[in-house]
Amino acid sequence: xxxxxxxxxxxxxxxxxxxxxxxxxxxxxxxxxxxxxxxxxxxxxxxxxxxxxxxxxxxxxxxxxxxxxxxxxxxxxxxxxxxxxxxxxxxxxxxxxxxxxxxxxxxxxxxxxxxxxxxxxxxxxxxxxxxxxxxxxxxxxxxxxxxxxxxxxxxxxxxxxxxxxxxxxxxxxxxxxxxxxxxxxxxxxxxxxxxxxxxxxxxxxx
Length: 206
Description:
Layout: H1 3-25, H2 32-39, H3 43-49, H4 53-71, H5 80-96, H6 100-112, H7 124-138, H8 148-168, H9 175-190, H10 194-205
């Protein structure tokens, strides 16, 4: 195992341990010492990879994008819609399985600081959604007159908005089902109806 892989595994172990502790005992009640003791790494090792506990939450979103980038293959889905549902569904599933206080803290930290990874327009999740919308338009799934980046932005804001409302409501509703329901409404609204496709193809043939 080379040094780069060791470094990656160390960071991943500290992050995963921290998230487990946040879930078990709460974000505020978990100290850096707790994380280090449970992960088996020194405080120096912790601060080598993270600036603070809150930075772990930011990194979790970065890690999600890295996971999607490494594993997501749009060609494995029959439709662009299925690809969009897979990305957004995985995001809501991961959030729902994270301690709610940790997610609240993430929102708080993102608002407080100028560097806001969640809404970075270049993050892989968002650019992947744009590409999927474009693919859907090419394949006559989605209305061609719509702006792909605006549609992807709407889908993304829907997901983040549902997560935020889930936090405000102390996790009192099923996040995954709510996101899936709201996403369906958006995707249905931009879908090309089969009759419209037939008309479009007829125009091209004529």
